[in-house]
Amino acid sequence: MDPKLGRMKSSSLALLLLLSGGMASLPAPPAALLERAFWYMDLHQDEFVQTLKEWVAVESDSVQPMPRLRQELFKMMALAADELRHLGASVDLVDSGSQQLPDGQTLPIPPVVLAELGNVPQKSTVCFYGHVDVQPAARADGWLTDPYTLTEVDGKLYGRGATDNKGPVLAWINAVRTFQALEEDLPVNVKFVIEGMEEAGSVALEELIRREKGRFFSGVDYIVISDNLWLSQRRPALVYGTRGNSYFTVEVRCRGQDFHSGTFGGILNEPMADLVALLGSLVDSLGHILIPGIYDHVAPLTEEEKEMYRAIDLDLEEYRTSSQVEKFLFDTKEEILMHLWRYPSLSIHGVEGAFDEPGTKTVIPGRVVGKFSIRLVPHMNSSVVEQQVKQHLEYIFAKRNSSNHMAVSMVLGLHPWVANIKDTQYLAAKRAIKTVFGTEPDMIRDGSTIPVAKIFQDVLQKSVLMLPLGAVDDGEHSQNEKINRWNYIEGSKLFAAFFLEMAQLHE
Q: Residue 230, SS3?
């Protein structure tokens, strides 16, 4: 669709929706206000992209526990705080203490940004959560461009963190800035929670939320998270559930240094051989997890849920092509979506201590550590899964009669989350999507894990909405991560429209 026609269509839809909602009593006609807001965002989109470029330039990697990267994280949190101060928000950088690592190293945890703008009792208060830390990235990993230099190619903005999650955080800020630039009151009170440790399991965040429940969060009505992707390249989506994650390491140790295979090969139990056998026992070639009892607590599939999967518009061929996968394990849309969202999966991520450089080094590793995770679904419990995994691996290892030593640890245990799609803000988000994009959203789950959603829901007892901006092919956590300029700018408009819809429904 031509962008100008799309904006005209959005404006017409906004007029119909908002006038029918009885908002004529507001100081400015909402449809006219939205049209002005959209015009402003189109006019200033290069400035919005430039700010994203400045944010992407910060190597805010929270996964690798290195002092230099922690300094980058602190720099990133200060940058986000300054951006919010420029909006006139009151901002606190809340100290999060330090992190004790398994090797004995202690690193400071970056502060959490708590900010608020507006405190009008008659307005609803919407709290936006986002994170500005990223996964590791290096040009040598297969990136076509420098991952920390935002590069635009054919309308695609490539850079680590562009879609996960710096772009969506800035889109929310762009929406607030637009109302201010137009000298219009914000339709809702806005609060921000921005952290820098999400990719490392949101270390210390739950403690902060519990501590601030009666202060910062006391007046919050709704929580919004934008840390997911659509299911397609062009059709928006609303997310109402995510899987949890239990992340494991399994160490096999013979001694603290490596062996020469010509000197020791054939006369000892090799740790790598033990580890390969252990990892190979976890999942079969069809993706079925082989750990006894792992499926016992999976929620049963209902007829209502089946209908929701049937209603989703998914072009399997497009999805396969955009994913650059030759063949999926399942042939139907429903099977693929259910195994992505409502069934557990087990993925093997890597091996620490093994020789992985180019060349032909004939080494026998003396110690290796395998890494794998299980994505959890309702009603699985991470503590139960931990025991099941340990018992299974102990059984497999005992069968090998190896003289090596094995140790299994669960380093992350994050629970799944499901929302009530009949909540007020899901209705507001649907209407805002219709206004901006001219279509109904797909109602989807996300196979990944957003730990904070479950924390917010359980601790604050507030409605949590997931409102994604990125397209299915954005490549979060992967090489050549990107966000489309169109998604970034239209997503900023979506948040502006969402503010107005929330104000209308609150009245």
A: coil
Task: Look at residues 231, 444, 236, 449 and name the one whose alpha carbon lies nearest to residue 323.
Answer: 231
User: Phi and psi (nearest 5°) for 234?
Assistant: -130, -20
Backbone angles phi, psi at 344, to 5 degrees: -70, 155
Question: Distance (Å, rounded) from C-alpha 49 to C-alpha 455?
Answer: 32
How far is it, in rounded angstroms, from Cα 46 to Cα 44? 6
pLDDT score, position 156: 98
Separation between Cα atoms, residue 197 and residue 133, nearest integer Å: 6
Residue 10 three-state SS:
helix
Task: Read off the tokens for 157.
Answer: 């903005």
Q: Identify the pLDDT of residue 30.
A: 65
428-447 per-position pLDDT tens digit: 999 999 999 999 999 999 99
How many angstroms separate the CA atoms of 196 and 194, rounded? 7
User: Which residues of the chain fall below pLDDT 50?
Assistant: 1-29
398-414 pLDDT tens trace? 999 999 999 999 998 98
Secondary-structure percent of the chain, ordered helix, strand, coil, rounded to 5: 40, 20, 40
Tell me whether residue 3 is exposed, middle or buried, using C-beta atoms within 10 angstroms of its C-beta: 0 to 12, 13 to 18, 19 or more. exposed
Would you say the C-alpha torsion 214, 219, 222, 228 has a positive or negative sign?
negative
Predicted pLDDT of residue 448? 87
Instruction: Identify any residues that bridge with 370 across adjacent strands, giving them in sequence order.
Output: 250, 351
The pTM for the full model equals: 0.81
Spatial CB neighbours of 39, under 8 Å, sequence gap ≥ 6: none
Catalytic residue numbers?
133, 198
Per-position DSSP letters for 132-149, written without gaps between them = --B----GGGT-SS-TTS
